[in-house]
Amino acid sequence: MIDEDAIYEDALETWGVELQLNMMIEECAELIQAITYLKRGGDTEQLMEELADVIIMTRQMEKMFGHEQVGNAVQGKLQRLQRRLEKEEK
Predict the structure, then answer these.
(1) Which residues are CB-contacts of 47 (< 8 A; sequence separation ≥ 6)?
(2) What is the model's pLDDT at position 25?
(3) Using one digit for the tens of pLDDT, what is the confidence trace for 40-78?
(4) Which residues contact 15 (CB under 8 A, 6 or more apart)?
(5) Residue 90: per-residue pLDDT
(6) Which of 35, 37, 63, 75 has the fewest CB atoms within 10 Å around its CB?
(7) Which pTM value belongs to this model?
(8) Buried b (16+ CB within 10 A) or exposed e, 5-21
């Protein structure tokens, strides 16, 4: 089993916060390109690869900025989404 936390810590120690923030930007841009490609009739393979990269970088960002802080932000966004969905159902 892969120890994700250890990998994220190693990446941060090796490349530092600034380079990892830049990598997050790059991976998000590549995901946008993959979504655009899919909408033009492309397959999902590229999308899955780029989505995996963004998920990994997102987890690393969570490690960098704090699990609790990110979790609180996610909960707030989910509550907002729930309210919007409830309004749509009415």
Answers:
(1) 31, 34, 35, 37, 38
(2) 98
(3) 999 999 999 999 999 999 999 999 999 999 999 999 999
(4) 23
(5) 79
(6) 75
(7) 0.89
(8) eeebeebeeeeeeeebe
